[in-house]
Amino acid sequence: MRALIIEPSPTYQRILSRMLDTYDFDMTFVDSATAGFRAMREHHHQFVCVAMYLPDLTGIEFCQHIRQGSINNEVPIFIVTSESNPELLSSALTAGATDIIRKDDLPRLEEALHTLIPLGPFRYNISGKALYLEDSLTVANATDAKLKRLGLQMDHAFSIAEAHHLLQHNKYELIMTDIVLQANETGIDFIKQLRSETRFQQTPILAVTSLESINRRIQALQSGANDYISKPVLDEELFARINNLISSNRLVEQLTRERQRLLELATKDHLTGLYNRHFMGEVAKRRFAEAYRNHLPLSVLVIDIDHFKQINDQYGHQTGDNVLKCLAEALRQQFNDDDYVARFGGEEFVVLLNQTELEPARHKAALLCQTLQQLKPENIITTVSVGAASLNPAQQEYFDEVFARADKALYQAKQNGRNQVVALVE
Ligand SMILES: Nc1nc2c(ncn2[C@@H]2O[C@H](COP(=O)(O)OP(=O)(O)OP(=O)(O)O)[C@@H](O)[C@H]2O)c(=O)[nH]1
C-alpha cells in the first residue's frame, strides 16, 4: 500500500510519518505539487495527503489537477491544513478533496483512513487467477493491471476457443467475459457453454458490457452470469463486484465442504470409513420398500470376525484397530458400489446385496471368507463367520426381520466352528 505525502514542513512530515507508520504504508514524502505529480506518475498510491500551501501550487489546485487528469484520478486526497476559512475549505471539497484534516486535529486523519481502507482494493483478501475473454488487447492489459492491484493474476483469451483451452489447464477464481467479441462470437455463447458444464456451474462469471446495452446485460444474467459491469469500468466498482463474487463463491464452497464433512460424520464410521449402523438402517428401509414393491431380490450378510478378542488381547488394541481397517477396505473392494457395506459395531459388518438372491449371496460370502483368510492383516491370520438371509418375496418383510434371520445364521456359523457361511431361508 502506497501513501503520498506532499508537505513542505519537515516537522509535519515527521508527525505524519510517525502517525502512518502503524499502517504499514509505503510512504513517499515530497515537498511540492510538481514532485507530487511526478510521484503519482511513477507509482499508484492508495491515498494522498497534501498541505494547503505548497511552494508551487495550493492543495486545492493540486486536487483540481488530479481530478481532471487521467492518472489515478479517483485517489482519496486529504488536505492537511491549519486553515480555518470556511469558504476556502468548502472550495477544497468542491475541487475534489476527499476530506479536510485540520493540523490541530490530526487523529481525524486516522479516522478517515479507517473509513477509507474498506474502499481501497487493498482491503480485499483476494488471491488466485482470473480468466478474461476480451478481443481488445488494450482493454485486457488495462484490466490486467487493475486485477493485479486486487491480488488476482489474469490470463487473457482473445477467443472462446482460446478461453476453453486455458480453462482446461488452469483453475480460475473468476471468469470475466466481454459480450461483443470478434468473428461473430459473443460472451453470451461463452457463458452458456460454461454453465452447461458441471465443473463451471459454480464459478463466478462477470460479464463486461457497454453502458447502453441493457438487453445484453439482461441476456448475460439470463445465460448464467452472476453479475455484470458496464464500460467504462470504474475501478472501485470493479473491485467491489469482483470481491463480492469471489467471496460469496468461497462461502458457498466452504458451506459445501462443511456440509460434506457433517454428512460424513453422520453417515460414516470414523475408524473404517464404512457406513455406520444408523445410515445402513436408513438405506435398508428404502431398499427393502423398493425391492418389495418391484419384486426384486435383496440379501443381507452379517459378517463377524472370529476370536477378535484374542487379537486384541494378544497384539493390543491398536493392532486390533488396524485389522478392522484392513478388513473394512477388503470388504469395500469386494462388493459393488450398489451394495452397501456398513460397520454395525465392534467387529461386526453388514452388507446389503442389491438385487441378489440367497444362493448368489451365499456364494459371494463364501468367496469373501476365502479372501479374508488369505489377507492376513498385520500378519495375523484372521477369519470371519457369515450369516446370510434374503427378503422373502411371499411376505412383506422389513430389514429388521431379514437382519434377525442373517444374525441367527451367523450364530449357527459360529457354533459350527467359525470361518464359514450359513444361509437361512426361514
Ligand atoms: N481394537 C478394537 N477392538 C474392538 C473394537 N470394538 C470392539 N472391539 C473388541 O472386539 C472384541 C469382540 O469380542 P467378542 O464379542 O468376545 O467376540 P470374539 O472375540 O470376536 O469372538 P467370536 O465372535 O465368538 O468369534 C472385544 O474384545 C471388543 O473389545 C474396536 O473398535 N477396536
Automatic annotation (TrEMBL):
The keyword Transferase applies. It comes from Alkalimonas collagenimarina. Its EC number is 2.7.7.65. PROSITE patterns: GGDEF (PS50887), RESPONSE_REGULATORY (PS50110). This is diguanylate cyclase. Keywords: Nucleotidyltransferase, Phosphoprotein, Transferase. Residues 2-118, 129-246 form the Response regulatory domain. It catalyses: 2 GTP = 3',3'-c-di-GMP + 2 diphosphate. Residues 296-426 form the GGDEF domain. One of its GO terms (molecular function) is diguanylate cyclase activity. The keyword Cytoplasm does not apply. Pfam families: GGDEF, Response_reg.
